[in-house]
Structures are given as C-alpha cells and as structure tokens.
Specification:
The chain is of the alpha/beta class and about 140 residues long. It has a single domain, classed as Rossmann fold, CATH 3.40.50. About 35% of the residues lie in helices and about 15% in strands. The N and C termini lie close together (about 10 Å).
Amino acid sequence: MKKTILVVCRGNTCRSIMFQSVLKKHLGEVEGLLILSAGTTVDNIIKSLILTNKILKKNNLPVIVEDTTSIKEYKNLNPDLLIILDETISEQVIKSKQVIKFNIEDPYSEEELKEEETNLNYIKTLKEIESLIIFHHNLDLFN
C-alpha cells in the first residue's frame, strides 16, 4: 500500500529537510512509503542548505535534498500525512488526509552569528526533531 508523507516549513532549507531525513532513518526502508519535504516560501538560501546537509552527514543521517522545493510542486499530491513545522503555516496549505502540526524554531538567522553559534542552533533543531520523531514513532503516528 502506497503512503505519502509531506513535511512542510517556510523555506525548505533546514527544518523540513532535517525532519525528512530523521523520519526516513527511523522508519527505515518501507515499501510504498514516500517521504517528501517542501517550503511555503522557498528561500533558496544555499548556505543554510549546505549547513543542514553538513549537520545531517555529521550525525550519520541521510542527505536527501540538494535543492529546495516549493509546496506548489505538490499541489495535486494529497498526502496521507502532512507534517507542518511552523505555527504560521495553515493546515489548509495543501489538501491531505491527516495533519500533524509542530512549532519548531527555525535555526536560520540573518544576523551575523559566529559559525559555532550557528552550528549549535542547527544541532539544537536537529535534536528537537529527533526527540519528536522518536516520541511520536512510539505512539505509532507515522505508520
């Protein structure tokens, strides 16, 4: 049975990509399961995407996304599960069978932060996502 999960945040450079990667790792290879990510206002912030992928690699997580994807590309998808990672995004952003909404702070900052501080923000976000997925996976919400 084919099942689609779509993970959405604003820019599709950090949170949704991290969530997609961690979810794939925790669910493993499930036949017929497609996990995608997208952003509502795709930012195409290359340095953010590069840092996200670097953090994923460092944590032995799959690097899946090399470029950002707009939610508009999935307008006809009708996923089985829509996971929204930002409280400012409406549950009606795309038609879906089920919606789970989290409010995960965006680690990206336009302020000039030291590299170490920026890395810590991304790692903190990744750890928050891992905790959420482990908790909800134990409740069987993603299966």
